Ankyrin repeat domain-containing protein (Ilex paraguariensis), 89 residues
Amino acid sequence: MGLQQSKEESLYKQVNHGDIEGIKALHSQGAGLEWTDREGKTPLIAACMTPELNNVAKTLIELGANVNAYSRGMYMGRVTLLKNILSGF
């Protein structure tokens, strides 16, 4: 029997699929925005790493994703830099 995915994991997957409405729906159901994958990427970091997901990154910021989040591993500190890049939103 498989493990059930958390709302946060589901939200992260919606980020990778670019599903803004799915992200909003899961967030309204209580899914947090700061879950990290095995590499230490938050949904915001994942969105910012793919130019096609800029609107997803904007949505995450509007929903309250922590742009100053600390991430372990190779993505450490990247969110602060991304905050500056995304400041045009």
Remarks:
- The chain has one domain: 8-88.
- Residues 8-88 form a domain with the Serine Threonine Protein Phosphatase 5, Tetratricopeptide repeat fold (CATH 1.25.40.20).
